């Protein structure tokens, strides 16, 4: 029995198991978030008692509410993540928030209950986004960091984009309760995996607390921890802005695309969900892409990805006729956008931990004493949250006031700006210091 316990604990603390559990948590969180996207207009009318003329407005408000809760919750989670070694408790709290949100969606009887459900989803996203990505980076070896972060990035994207497809299909076939049947099943598996995670450093800390120093806590020394301010370096700000753009584009499309295909092509809720499939399929390629782009500098890949995405994004404006040609065109263009988004996101998520090492080396903090991943991913999560807030509001407003064509033009210009921003921010790398030259050479190869 002792051997079995040791083997089980070793398995549960392995980087592979932690990667699987956290990727599943990331997928579940964004899947439950995305599942209501295509059915939100119907929920607002049937459960929220909303007038049909106000559906677009309240759809934008509900999607933005999620982003606001995510924005406010991420800094606190990032601080907790860097200060304390214990991660299981906040992960379980994040699960509770997501489970509560799902129950509220099923039982909602007015718009205020739907708003509360979105707040709970946002708080859950703050926990899973910051802790999940930080733990993946912490438990990954340098040679596997890129592919592991690509897995985490793909899990986020798959959940965000598979949710609308599944939600549209289930809602059209089984109604509101049936639409949330799959999320409830995923949540059961999710909580089991989260509870099984074992952190080796946490166990070691508990052992030394019991044997040597009862007064020792799990906090990390403040002398080796940088504040949020120290991470406001051009390299990190460039990555954060890229995350903001990606999130804004995805959330703007999620907000406007279902209603656009309903009004233009007269598709059902099933069609409104399946239209996200072209955006989803490319995320399967995130891991091969992460391996392939190792032959190029991240700056080249990110800048090229954003610039290439500008063309199909603007071209979406020419799909406003209810013809087969325009329907094929919108699917093809969304697929190209999905490829570009997948490529850029996979590179950025892996580059965050390398940027942290680069910045901490400037303050003579070694990799062994590094404690800034939580804050760095909190900044990215805040950028993602800001995009989830700005994207629906701006996208919904522009589409409502000026039309689909103007909205896609604005998103295309945003891609162009992000490409130029990525180019100049990555040029602003700090000079090397002789003391950390060996370590910085390794990071330099990843960043440039």
TrEMBL record:
One Pfam family it belongs to: MFS_1
SUPFAM superfamilies reported for this sequence: MFS general substrate transporter
Localization: Membrane
Transmembrane segments: 58-79, 91-109, 177-197, 231-253, 265-289, 301-318, 324-348, 404-429
Keywords per UniProt: Membrane, Transmembrane, Transmembrane helix, Transport
Keyword Ribonucleoprotein: no
Taxonomic lineage of the native organism: Eukaryota, Fungi, Dikarya, Ascomycota, Pezizomycotina
Protein name: Major facilitator superfamily (MFS) profile domain-containing protein
PANTHER family found in the cross-reference section: GH10249P
A molecular function GO annotation: transmembrane transporter activity
GO cellular component: membrane
Organism the protein comes from: Penicillium flavigenum
Membrane topology: Multi-pass membrane protein
UniProt domain Major facilitator superfamily (MFS) profile: residue ranges: 18-433
Domain of life according to the entry: Eukaryota
Family: Belongs to the major facilitator superfamily. Vesicular transporter family.
Keyword Protease: no
